[in-house]
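testing teh design pipeline on a random one, pls ignore if ur not involved
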């Protein structure tokens, strides 16, 4: 499994899984609920304020699931501003750039290292506090904020938080140049699935993420979305006025997994039939190129897929690309060549009350054709890579649909879409 980065910050993930899997006392439940109520009233006020502004920002994306393994966005940052290529990651909060502070250990980057301004984020800043492990926010130097983020593939970035200007163009023609906090990363450790990039764009739910910062400055609503094209490229957007909400299948964000974009628990449905595999906690993570199921769901899926393939002209074959691949009589050119042998499966989420919302995986959402012309399964065993019981929906399964993370309303939505052209407004997009 060469390229399968998972964009999670590991420390936080383990803490949170501990909370869910361990027994949570009544008092911590109370605390959680109260916290949610205060969030809601703040949310209502900010949407009223922001509705008057109503602008969106659209960024073209480059990259693909295979062979590149990620999607990147170009951001212009600094004074004077310079372009940087960033990996988009809805699984983590902090945005950081490889940084000349000077750099102790930087990995190969497409652009010269970022030179930070002298505008340090102080230790007491809530953004700094939000990035420290719970209960461990001690300010050795009150004038600066040190951070360290670790990802599930073993990669990490260590550095200091600074503020700098981001240049952003809105769809309504307005140009923004807000001062936002970002990490100046001077010590990077490449993970298993390392890519040559200038940094990571953190799009998570935490207050340090770029969309949260833009929203707290009253500039753009805290709504983000992406449309990853199966032919490569696509777009990322911030703001609400580029899609038609009535066409999107919405489901509430999980309260249990409040740090990640999770629609909660699901059942695995194979070819329209219930499998009995339930209680699958899933998260959406654009920082992961492939999808990971926990060993229970992974084994169930393999069993069903293989049962369907028996008697079909496909045979398992070793391939460097991914652990499970099939070859045919001739090398396959595209998924269309194998689509008839593979069924669609789904995760069916309970979206409040009794309604269920399905996230479907057609063969295009779980297979790739390797350079050797084999069809390979882009669903991996998450338990094997340390994700414990969690299920991670990665780029491969989000292709050719619009996935929207609405932090104002605390809902996640998806709808099939053409990701090949950039939206100008919701009228031209749909
Ligand atoms: C990122 O996107 C740019 C286009 O904006 C593209 O030219 C570049 O090759 C991509 N960079 C990487 C490292 O993939
Ligand atoms: C924003 O728009 C201006 C003027 O059209 C253009 O020169 C600039 O490159 C754009 N910047 C970004 C970040 O897209
Ligand atoms: C998935 O990973 C777990 C943990 O390494 C392992 O016990 C299990 O056998 C794996 N399942 C399959 C089908 O490979």
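output:
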């Amino acid at each position: 499994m060469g390229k399968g980065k998972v964009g999670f910050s590991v420390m936080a993930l383990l803490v949170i899984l501990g909370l869910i899997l361990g027994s949570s006392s009544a008092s911590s439940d109370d605390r959680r609920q109260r916290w949610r109520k205060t969030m809601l009233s703040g949310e209502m006020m900010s949407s009223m304020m922001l509705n008057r502004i109503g602008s969106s920002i659209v960024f073209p994306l480059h990259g693909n699931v295979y062979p590149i393994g990620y999607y990147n966005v170009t951001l212009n940052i600094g004074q004077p501003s310079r372009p940087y290529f960033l990996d988009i990651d809805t699984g983590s909060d902090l945005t950081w750039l490889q940084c000349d502070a000077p750099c102790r250990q930087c990995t190969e980057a497409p652009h010269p290292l970022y030179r930070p301004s002298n505008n340090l984020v102080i230790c007491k800043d809530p953004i700094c506090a939000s990035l420290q492990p719970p209960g461990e926010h001690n300010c050795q130097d009150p004038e600066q904020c040190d951070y360290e983020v670790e990802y599930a593939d073993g990669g990490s970035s260590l550095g200091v938080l600074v503020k700098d200007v981001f240049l952003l163009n809105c769809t309504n023609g307005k140009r923004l140049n807000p001062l936002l906090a970002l990490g100046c990363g001077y010590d990077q450790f490449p993970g298993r699935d390392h890519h040559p990039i200038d940094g990571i764009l953190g799009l998570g739910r935490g207050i340090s993420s770029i969309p949260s910062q833009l929203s707290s400055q009253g500039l753009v609503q805290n709504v983000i979305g992406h449309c990853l094209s199966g032919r490569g490229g696509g777009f990322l957007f911030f703001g609400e006025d580029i899609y038609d909400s009535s066409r999107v299948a919405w489901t509430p964000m999980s309260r249990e997994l409040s740090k990640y974009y999770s629609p909660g628990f699901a059942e695995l449905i194979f070819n329209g039939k219930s499998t009995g595999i339930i209680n699958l906690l899933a998260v959406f993570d654009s920082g992961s190129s492939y999808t990971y199921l926990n060993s229970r769901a992974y084994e169930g899926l393999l069993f069903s897929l293989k049962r369907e393939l028996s008697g079909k002209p496909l045979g398992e074959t070793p391939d460097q690309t991914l652990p499970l691949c099939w070859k045919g009589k001739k090398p396959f050119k595209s998924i269309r060549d194998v689509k008839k042998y593979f069924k669609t499966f789904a995760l069916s989420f309970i979206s409040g009350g009794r309604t269920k919302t399905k996230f479907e995986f057609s063969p295009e959402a779980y297979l790739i054709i390797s350079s050797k012309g084999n069809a390979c399964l882009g669903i991996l065993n998450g338990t094997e890579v340390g994700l414990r019981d969690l299920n991670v929906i990665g780029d491969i399964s989000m292709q050719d649909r619009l996935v929207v993370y609405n932090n104002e309303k605390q809902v996640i939505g998806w709808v099939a879409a053409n990701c090949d052209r950039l939206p100008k407004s919701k009228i031209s997009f749909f």
